[in-house]
Design brief:
With 279 residues, the protein is mainly alpha-helical. It is built from ten helices and three strands; from the N terminus they run H-H-H-H-H-H-E-E-E-H-H-H-H. Strands 1-2-3 form a three-stranded antiparallel sheet, with no helix packed on it. Helix 1 runs antiparallel to helix 8, helix 1 runs parallel beside helix 10 and helix 6 packs across helix 10. The relative contact order is 0.17.
Length: 279
């Protein structure tokens, strides 16, 4: 599944901002609307999810490199019937054969990889089927649900918007350091549980990101490819500058492929509209 067109992403983003407006300040009743949100409490392993996705990307890169290597190798080989022609040099024959082959591909476009039939299951893009995801993931293991639960858990746990003052750095740092039990987080050396729901008074007294701000942050987050390039650049620069350079902290969506991010956005839009319809 290819990356969705930009106008589709913009349309989903604007729809999410409109739907999240009643749940976020400065809406006068945002605390009441936000109190309708709740967590199921289903445990999920975020680290395992991003590890499995990264392993699939590594295998995909290896297959792409192998296929490109085979194509480059095959481009340097001409048929035996052509090679038997001793009246011309091998370089001339190879160049003419390449031109003839490119011309046929241009007119008929019927070149196919021989290994596609064997590797069709492995070559399936991650999260390619929105309507048949049960064939590849259980409901509790689907990356779009795991990303949704992870962001929802962050909102319920509270946190900083990244503009902390020196007096708030320890108490309001982002991202939260999650505890091993998957449902709590460390704060000032203590384990705190993430609530399943909040009352309006608790939401009004929270200094963390609003629903709208989390949506804005995740849509502006770097893609997996951009994060990979930045990390490679940071690694090379830190090796020359020493070990004092701090690595950049990326939002959760930067670890998820674009098709899955879009599915999570659509699922979030569906859930917000359900709450608005119920209210």
């Amino acid at each position: 599944m290819t990356t969705p067109p930009p106008f589709v992403i913009r349309s989903v983003y604007r729809s999410l901002l409109r739907s999240s407006k009643p749940f976020s300040p400065p809406s006068p009743n945002y605390a009441v609307y936000a109190s309708l949100l709740h967590r199921s409490g289903i445990s999920h392993d975020w680290e395992e999810c991003i590890y499995n996705l990264e392993q699939k990307r590594v295998k995909q890169r290896q297959r792409d490199d192998d296929k490109s290597g085979k194509k480059n190798e095959n481009n340097n080989i001409i048929p035996k019937s052509w090679a038997r022609n001793l009246t011309r040099s091998y370089a001339d024959l190879k160049e003419e054969y390449k031109l003839r082959k490119d011309s046929l591909i241009l007119h008929f476009d019927d070149e196919e990889d021989e290994d596609d039939d064997e590797d069709w299951a492995e070559d399936m893009p991650i999260g390619a089927s929105h309507f048949h995801e049960e064939e590849y993931y259980n409901a509790d293991q689907d990356p779009k649900f795991i990303l949704f639960r992870h962001l929802l858990r962050e909102w319920f746990a509270g946190g900083s918007n990244g503009e902390t003052t020196p007096t708030k750095v320890e108490d309001k740092s982002w991202p939260r350091q999650w505890s091993p039990d998957e449902e709590g987080y460390y704060e000032n050396g203590k384990i705190k549980q993430v609530p399943l729901m909040k009352f309006p008074s608790q939401i009004m007294n929270c200094d963390g990101l609003s629903v709208r701000e989390i949506i804005q942050r995740e849509f502006r987050a770097a893609t997996v490819e951009e994060k990979y390039r930045r990390e490679q650049s940071d690694t090379s620069s830190s090796s020359t500058a020493g070990d004092d350079a701090q690595s950049e902290v990326y939002p959760p969506s930067s670890y998820i492929d674009n098709p899955i991010r879009l599915q999570t956005a659509l699922y979030t839009l569906q859930e917000l509209n359900r709450k608005l319809a119920w209210a």
